[in-house]
Structures are given as C-alpha cells and as structure tokens.
Amino acid sequence: MEERIVLLTKFLQSLRNEVLEYYDKTHLYLKDLVSYKNIDLKEETLEQTEESIKTTLLLMLKSVKTGLNTIGVPIDKLSKIQNIYLKEVETKRTELHNYGAFLELYLKSYINKILFEILIDFVLDTDAKKIETLKLFKLIPQNFIDGLHEFKETFVNSRTKSFFSFPAIEENLNFSDLSINIKSYNLNPNTQNNNNMNTEEEKNKEGKKTGEEPNILTQLQEAKKDIIETLKIPKKKLLTSSLEQLKTTLNQSETPKSMEHVNLPPSSMPQTNLINSNLIKKDITFESAKKNFLDYFGNLPTVHSEFLNKFRINITNLLNSRIVNPDFLDLEIMFYYVSILKMAAIEFPFAPIEIIDFLRNYVNEMTFSTSRYSVSDSISIFYGLSIITELDLIHRTNIINLNSTEEFLKRNIINVMPNKLRTNYHTFLSLKLLAKSEIISSRKGNLINQLLNLDVLNMKNISPTLDIYSHLSILSILDKNVNLSRFKTPYIDEIKKRLTSKGSIGDQITDSARTLLILDLLDLKDQESVLCSRLLQYVMNTTDFFTLDNLEKDFNWRIDKIAYKIELRMLFWALLACTQYSPNNIVNF
Q1: What percent of the chain clears pLDDT 70, i.e. is strictly above it?
Q2: pLDDT for the residue numbered 588
Q3: Distance CA 531, CA 6 (A)
Q4: DSSP SS3 for 42
Q5: Residue that wins the pLDDT comparison between 555 and 566
C-alpha cells in the first residue's frame, strides 16, 4: 500500500491538472450527446412523476452509454454501473432537484472512475486504443499523452504494475476529486514529527532487514508532506499558480505589457455582424506569389472530372449519412462533409438556416468551440470559419463575433511555440481565412527562423507525415516565397521509408494524400513524378467510400461515429490532394 500511495502521489503531482481537464472535456462531450436528445438539464424534477423521471433518466443514460462505447468502453461494463447508479438515485431522489444534478452524480461518482481506468490501462500497456480514440475526439491532448509516456517510462515496471491494478487502487484514490486516501497514516503535520521521532529506532531496525524498505518509507514521508502542503493551498490559488507557471514557460521572449493576455469581455459585447466587406479581402495582402492549396481553404476547388470518375463514392449514402445518424455530426465532421461536397461538385443538401442552427451548438461567447460549453480553440475556429466561408454565410450570420475570434487567435501567436505544429497550423490558417496578414506578418520574421531551424524529425512522438505536412504548411502560410529546399532530401527520404509495394505511405490513404500535398509544397512534382503517380493511383483506386458492404462488422461508418469520421477524413484528404494534380501527372511506370 505504501508504494501505491507514493506512485499515485507522483502521478498526480505531474498530471493532476491534465486529468481534471480530461474529465471536464469528456463530461462536456457526454453532456452534448444528452442535449441532442432534447433533455433540458436545468429542468426541475421535484414535481415530476417517478415514471417521467425514469424515462428521461434512461434516455440520458443511453446517450452517455453510446458516447463511452464509441470511445471503446464495453456495453456490459456500462450497463452494470448504470444499474448501480439507478439504485443510488432511488435513495437520493429528494436531494437531486434537476436533471443536471442527476447527470453530475453519474459523471463524478461513476464515469470518472472509468475515465481514470482508461489512463491506467494506457500506462500499463493494457489498452492504448481508447487513448487514441480520445485523442481523435479532441478529448485528450498530445502533451497529456506525452506526460503519460514519461510517467510510464520513469515509474512503471514489472514490479510496480500491480500497485495500479483495479480494484485495489480504489482503496487509496477518490476518482471524483483525485484526492488520496491514506487510511492508517496521520496527515496532521503537528503530530507527524513526534511520530517520526518515536518510530526512528523501529525504522532503523527494519532497515537492516532490507535495503529497499527505508527508501520506500522515505518516499512515503515525502509524499505525505507534498499532500499536506497541497491540501493547505486553496484550489483557486493552486490553479492560478499552475497557470502562472505555464505563462512563464511560454514567455521565453520578452512581450510588451500591451500584448499580454487580457480577458475578453463576456458575451454581453455587441453582437455585430460577423464580418463586413472591409474585413475580408482574401489574399490581397499576402505575399505575391503563385497560389497553393492553402490559399483555397474556404473556397475549395473542384477535383478534375477525370479524377472524380476514378473515385468509387456512393453519393446517395454519403448524402443520406447526415440523416441516418444525425447524432454523429460535430464541427469537424461537418467541415469534412461540406468540403467533400464542394470538391466533388455535389450540390449541398442543407438550407442555410439549418447550417446556422447547427453551428450555434459549437459557439461559446461568440467564438467557435467544440461545444457551447467549451472554451474556444484554434482547431474549432478553423473548422467553423471554413464552413461559413465555404457556404458564403459569412455575411449572413451574427452567431460569432469576428473581433473576439481575432483576439483569441492573436493571443495564440503572441507566445507561439514553434514545435506545437498542429495548433499553429490551424491558428495561422484561421487568420488566413480572415485575411489578417498584418497579424501574421508581425510574427513572421522571428518565427520563420525558428521554424526553419526546428528539427521536426527528432521531435518526441512524431507522426512523420502529419508533422512534416504541418511544418511546411505553416512556413508557406507565413511566407509563400520561403525557401524550402533544405527540407527536400530529409523529408522525402523519411517519407519513403514508409512507402509500400502498393505505392502507398504505410497503407494509409490519409498519409498518402498528405504526401502528395508535401510534394506540391516542396515543388517536387516533376522530380518525383513516378512517386506522385503511384500515390494518386492509390488514393483514387483503393477504397469504396460509403459502401454498404461489410456493414455486419461492428466498426463501420453506418453505426460507429469514429468509423464515420475516419471515412470522411480519408475522402477529404484524398480529394484535397487531387485538387493539386491533373491527369498529366499520371505516368506509366
């Protein structure tokens, strides 16, 4: 038990804030699913009949079950805790005044345990798939996964694995608030010293038996001290301290006070039109040079008809997918859906009012976010801006405030970290959609030098194709005339390591399509004509998109949200890559 407490303390010292953020994001995701069932979490329940409450609760629990099962949690496990929860609810009926309270009890007392168990499974190498799914759903960031990796490498081995096992770990950890329970140990700092003095002789005797035990007890004492000190700090002050540490880390270079983070006014700011004609003049102030595919986000071109004819896409199933599974739709999926229809020259089936109503679910304080309850993020802003510009709704809605959006993006680039490639990619693309070249130019000089010197191939936990694509794209957004020749040999050599006999990159359509875009950015289409041709053939001819075959499998686009998102994502990248090529790029080999 002592070692378990030590390890849990070390874990929470490093990653407590990240775990709580992961809890919050997943709770918001599940609350969104509940809201899609038209359940008002603020609705009072004290005057409702038992039958009415039970019906609503079962619908609410079904939504949560669906969401967690999509992540990978087994149905039978969810059904079991659901039954236990319903029994507890019967005893606490008068204490819960609305459906929000019912849901909070379920999330904090039952679901948090499942969420923590997913982390432990990952740390123990029992199950990594759920973490990948959480990452796909933007519920867990890469830096948290990196932290889990680091903890695993430092503290987990064949001997310590047993200390994290369930249900033993439940004795010492409250999954709701992440407090550690040390049952038989006195946490009073005033009495601890006396206790230590009285037992010093005993510890010395025990130390003669084994060289390991004194070290464990020392670690335990240190862990206790850390817990005591942490418990003394008010939660608000603890959070402020963490944020200050983060701010200090990010501020590597001096920043004028006028540019430091300031809180935006709440949603009471005037709800002006989203944008006016003077605020968006696409690309007129960016560097004068030939256009690349990055210039077309928000107004994507159509794939060459000869290429489109090679794709095997069931258009009827694609169009109907939004009706068959409306619960699957989120901001990212809608971005793929809209973009695919545009590039495939398919008439859009939504009325403008439907899109605007849909997007309202992904706006918080007048900026795009993953849900109406979440804080804004660059990726959501990019998806949202792309949709409304692609559908020419930017002048016809006031659901977001352009100034708030711009200020958020500005804050992201004030203390930009060059190695945060994916965040930076979406931040600068969003500014490009707003044609805010002067903001980009203000950070261009120093950032370009940092990015040119960034050793992407030796970064930790690299995804080669995605990170290379993001790196080159950011540089091209900052300066279309930037010289990328230094990256041609190392990047193409790295990518070719994953080239298969089928002419694909790692047997993946998405990575193969991104490679085509990388070749375009590096101006290697002619030099690597055979590679381009093989990749084009692969992305166009390999897959039947939105087919009704193999629907008997559990993981298919018709019944599983992740499978649906993957199907759309593959098709999006395949089509995007093909917009930059023509039949002339197909060569005999």
Answers
A1: 78
A2: 66
A3: 53
A4: coil
A5: 566
Dihedral-angle region of residue 588 (phi above 0 means left; psi in -120 to 50 means alpha; beta otherwise):
beta
Are the CB atoms for 363 and 369 separated by under 8 Å?
yes
- The answer on pLDDT for 372 being more than 80 is yes
Q: What's the pLDDT score for residue 335? A: 96
Among 472, 577, 583, smallest CA distance to 535 is for: 577
* Confidence label for 227 from pLDDT (cuts 50, 70 and 90): very low
Beta strands 179-180 and 173-174, pairing class: antiparallel
CA–CA gap between residue 392 and residue 573 (Å, rounded): 22
Tokens matching residue 129? 């798939």
Q: Among all chains, which residue has been given the structure tokens 């009495």?
A: 191
416-433 burial, b for 16+ CB within 10 Å, e for fewer? Answer: bebbebbbbbbbbbbbbb
Pairwise CA distance, residues 20 & 330, whole Å: 23
- Continuous segment of H or E residues that includes residue 367: strand 367-368
Residues 375, 364: contact at Cβ < 8 Å?
A: yes
Residue 43, pLDDT > 60, answer yes
Residues 6+ apart with CB under 8 A from 185: 220, 224
- Predicted local distance difference test score (pLDDT) of residue 412: 84
Length of the chain: 589
With a CB cutoff of 8 Å and minimum separation 6, the contacts of 450 are 418
| Cβ neighbours of 34 (radius 10 Å) | 22
Amino acid at 388: I
**Distance from C-alpha of 490 to C-alpha of 506, rounded to nearest angstrom:** 18
From residue 311, give the alpha-carbon distance in Å to each of 317, 320, 439, 498, 557.
Answer: 14, 18, 40, 24, 18
Q: Any idea which residue has 């070692």 for tokens?
A: 3
- Cβ distance 23 to 144 under 8 Å? no
Would the pLDDT of 60 be above 80? yes
Task: Say if CB 118 and CB 166 are below 8 A apart.
Answer: no
480 with 285: CB under 8 angstroms?
no
Share of the chain above pLDDT 90, in %: 38
Pick from 76-80, 199-203, 358-362, 554-558: least confident? 199-203
Q: Is the model more confident about 507 or about 229?
A: 507
Residue environment code for 235-248, b if the CB has 16+ CB neighbours within 10 A, otherwise e: eeeeeeeeeeeeee
459, 438 Cβ separation under 8 angstroms: no
Confidence of residue 383 (pLDDT cuts 50, 70, 90): very high
Q: How far is CA 394 from CA 376, 400, 476, in A?
A: 19, 10, 25
H/E element holding 279?
none
Q: Are residues 389 and 359 in contact, defined by beta-carbon separation less than 8 angstroms?
A: no
Q: Could you tell me the pLDDT band of residue 225, with boundaries at 50, 70 and 90?
A: low
Domains along the sequence of the chain with CATH: 2-182 (no CATH), 293-585 (1.50.10)
